[in-house]
Write a structure and sequence with these properties.
By secondary structure, this protein is an alpha/beta fold. The chain contains ten helices and eight strands. The protein has a six-stranded parallel β-sheet, sandwiched between helices. Strands 2-3 form a two-stranded antiparallel sheet. Strand 6, helix 9 and strand 7 (199-203) form a beta-alpha-beta unit. The protein is elongated and about 60 Å long.
Length: 234
C-alpha cells in the first residue's frame, strides 16, 4: 500500500524544546504572581507545580492533566487567592511564555509542502488541549500546512492509547498500513502507533539509548533525517 497519511507529534517534534519553554513559563508565572499579588513567586510556582502533579496522579492519561487553567486554579486556591478571577490570567501568562520561546525545527515546512504536493494527508496527534495546540500551529506558520489536528482532548485519552490514532486514521481516510507516525516519545508515539499497525518514526533528538523492543520502527536523530526517510515512502 502507498503512503496516504503522515502523523506528527507536536511538542518536541515539530519544534524544540518544550522543556526549555516550560521552564521559562514557570519563571514568568513567578514574576507575574509577585507583581499581581505581592506573594512569593517561587511559592506560587511550587503550588502550580504541585497541582500539576496532583492532577497527573488523579487522572493519569486523561486530557485534564494538560489544562493549565486547572493547574493555576489549584495553585491560587492553595495560596488563598481568587482562582475564579485569576486562573485564566495565569493560564495566559504561562502559554504566552511558552509560545514566545518555540522554534520550528529545520525541514518541517519543506516536508509538509512536499507531502501536500504529493497528495499525502497530514495530522498532528498530540497529548494536549485542542485550542492551545491550534494556537501553536498558527504561531509556527503551520496552520495551512497541516490537514487535521487530533488532540487527546478530542480522542478522550492520551497517547499511547489507541483512540487518538484510530481517530487520525478515520479523519485521513486511510488504513494503518498506509500511515506513519513521527514523534520524539518512544512509548507514546512509536509504541502507540505501531500497536495499531501504523509505521513508527522515532525522532530521538536527545540520543536516548535504544529501547529493548522487537517491533519494527525507524530511528532518526533530527527532523531532516525523518523528512528524508518519509520522502522515500512517497
Amino acid at each position: 500500500m502507498g503512503l496516504k497519511a503522515v502523523f506528527f507529534d507536536l511538542d518536541d517534534t515539530l519544534y524544540t524544546s518544550f522543556q526549555a519553554c516550560d521552564a521559562y513559563a514557570y519563571e514568568r508565572l513567578a514574576a507575574w504572581a509577585e507583581d499581581e499579588f505581592g506573594v512569593s513567586g517561587a511559592a506560587f510556582a511550587d503550588a502550580y507545580r504541585t497541582n500539576r502533579h496532583r492532577l497527573g496522579r488523579q487522572q493519569p492519561g486523561m486530557p485534564p492533566v494538560h489544562d493549565r487553567v486547572l493547574f493555576a486554579q489549584g495553585a491560587l486556591e492553595r495560596m488563598g487567592l481568587n482562582a475564579i478571577r485569576y486562573a485564566r490570567k495565569a493560564h495566559r501568562v504561562y502559554w504566552d511564555a511558552v509560545i514566545s520561546q518555540m522554534e520550528l525545527r529545520p525541514g518541517v515546512t519543506a516536508l509538509l509542502d512536499d507531502l501536500k504536493q504529493a497528495g499525502v494527508r497530514t495530522a498532528v496527534c498530540t497529548d494536549m488541549l485542542a485550542d492551545i495546540q491550534m494556537e501553536k500551529l498558527e504561531y509556527l506558520g503551520l496552520a495551512d500546512r497541516i490537514t487535521y489536528l487530533v488532540s487527546s482532548e478530542e480522542a478522550g485519552m492520551d497517547k499511547p492509547g489507541a483512540p487518538i490514532f484510530w481517530l487520525a486514521l478515520a479523519k485521513c481516510g486511510c488504513l494503518p498500513g498506509e500511515a506513519v507516525m513521527v514523534g520524539d516519545n518512544f512509548r507514546h508515539d512509536v509504541q502507540g502507533a505501531t500497536d495499531v499497525g501504523i509505521g513508527g518514526v522515532w525522532l530521538n533528538w536527545t540520543h536516548l539509548p535504544r529501547p529493548e523492543d522487537s517491533r519494527a520502527y525507524t530511528e532518526v536523530h533530527d527532523f531532516e533525517q525523518a523528512a528524508d526517510y518519509i520522502r522515500t515512502l512517497l
